[in-house]
Specification:
Length: 237
């Protein structure tokens, strides 16, 4: 068995007998305190009033994060991802702009611009499928994209027969490509090819304009066509 701690000489039994002298340090302190209590030394002093702890300054809260862009202006520089869908204002239609393009849902049109500014695509809702209404809406898109060299009267004559048609989600797209006489389309003063789009999707008339500067942006024609064919109306949501 392990020896008890008192067997190691740490406890003097004789010192614990009545009348024996106390040789423990705590015992001598206890005896001194008893004597002092009779002389008034152990009387308690009145407790001092608690002192107020100094107030520590609260750390300043971090500023709230800036609001996420609403992508309602090209100045917000929203860049399209492959899964991005851009809604056409005043309609339930939407399309997927080309990836990496800057896009915005403006008040009158959905606009997408290539990174170098040499290609663009825009859609808007026309008030009706009437040729005059569609030509008016297209003229507004031309102004927005700074497209010149195309006469509105000439556009109305072309509405009767499209150059081609392609299927879309929820409908059919009618397409016209203009780049030669009697028109000379330009965007920001640069000549190129203009694509016109007309569709009736979910009961809504939509028109669109796509442009590529030639030869600098001819490679963007394929992404524009992919974006055009992604156009879908409310019935295809």
């Amino acid at each position: 068995m392990p020896q008890k701690w008192w067997r190691e000489g740490l406890w003097d039994k004789k010192a614990e007998r009545p009348g024996a002298a106390m040789n423990k340090p705590f015992a001598s302190l206890l005896a001194a305190c008893v004597v002092a209590c009779f002389t008034g030394a152990c009387k308690q002093k009145p407790a001092s009033a608690p002192t107020a702890s100094p107030q520590t300054a609260q750390p300043a809260l971090p500023a709230p994060p800036p609001p996420r862009p609403g992508c309602e202006s090209l100045e917000e520089r929203c860049q399209a991802l492959p899964e991005t869908e851009l809604e056409v204002p005043a309609s339930l239609a939407r399309f997927r702009p080309p990836a990496s393009w800057t896009y915005a849902k403006e008040s009158a049109a959905a606009v997408a611009i290539a990174p170098d500014g040499n290609a663009a695509l825009s859609f808007a809702a026309a008030t009706s499928a009437d040729a005059d209404a569609m030509a008016t809406t297209l003229a507004q898109l031309f102004t927005r994209l700074q497209i010149t060299g195309v006469d509105a009267a000439f556009i109305k004559t072309r509405f009767q027969k499209p150059d081609s048609t392609v299927p879309a989600e929820g409908g059919e797209l009618k397409l016209w490509e203009l780049e030669k006489k009697p028109v000379a389309p330009q965007m920001n003063g640069k000549a190129g090819s203009l694509l016109l789009v007309h569709a009736v999707l979910g009961g809504q008339t939509l028109v669109g304009a796509g442009f590529v500067v030639k030869p600098e942006a001819e490679a963007q024609a394929a992404p524009i066509m992919t974006a055009v064919q992604s156009l879908r109306g409310a019935s295809a949501q």
